[in-house]
Amino acid sequence: MSDYILSKSTFIRGLQCYKSLYLHKFRPYLRDKISEEQLAKFARGHAVGKVAQQLFPGGIEMSRPGKPSAVKTAQLITEGYPVIYEACFISEQVIVALDILVRQDNGYAAYEVKSSLALSNVYYNDAYLQYHVIKGSGLKPEKFFLIHRNGETDMAESSALHEKFVFTDVSAECEEQDLQISPKINSMLEVLTRDKSPDIQPGKHCMKPYPCDFRGVCWKKISQSEQDELMQG
Ligand code: SF4
Fold it and tell me: How many domains does the chain have?
């Protein structure tokens, strides 16, 4: 059996809808075609992540998330390596890859970078999960920061790197939420043991926080006017 079943993105998917989580895992071919807009968003996220790495230069980057990266990350932490990009952790059958892990006097601080101009609930939930998994793997982050783009400066401008980003310390919230995470993980893992997808009807949750990419199959059951209503929120 694999060391992990869930990831950051599948956890966020599961928070939105168990059926979407199930279909993503077992019927990925039913997913709607990815839009140009989404592809551009992924590319922007990747580019901003690369710029943000320079906030903490000289780090070593883990290759794609997986057991070898988690083993390597653990080894570098044991050796006290100062900066690790895409630091990988596995616990409770969940894998996460943290954007930047930075050694401090008293431990390590975690930094997760978002390419948006503001923080949303999704980003907080992402931080809560990562904090929980990192802690579960044996490293309690001393601090957890979400970083997002500063809307008052342009990424292309030659202003100081720190001015391009806004740092939000979410350590206290991560600790507060920590006990809530295991039950959520366990519920999702249970859904993924079922032999058919959960019977969840389309509703407002299909569009929030993200438009679900299984609407093409799932919304066939509802009328066009109902679809229009859901689209309008
Ligand atoms: S379309 Fe709606 S009900 Fe269907 S899987 Fe997606 S979120 Fe769930």
Answer: 2
pLDDT, position 232: 83
In this structure, are 132 and 208 located in the same domain? no
Give me the pLDDT at residue 160, please: 87
Cα(229)–Cα(139) distance, rounded to whole angstroms?
46
42 Cα–ligand 1 center, Å:
22
Q: Is 10's C-beta closer than 6 angstroms to any atom of ligand 1?
A: no
For residue 16, give the ligand 1 atom closest to its CA. Answer: 7
Whose alpha carbon is nearest atom 7 of ligand 1?
Answer: 206
* Residue 197 near ligand 1, beta carbon < 6 Å: no
Say how many Å lie between the first and final Cα of the chain, rounded: 40
Q: Is residue 108 assigned to a domain?
A: yes
Q: What is the pLDDT confidence band of residue 1, given thresholds at 50, 70 and 90? A: low
Angle of CA points 37, 8, 80, to nearest 5°: 120
* Separation of CA 126 and ligand 1 centre (Å): 20
Domain encompassing residue 171: 6-200
Question: CA nearest 205: which of 58, 12, 6, 4?
Answer: 12
Query: Both 47 and 84 in a single domain?
Result: yes
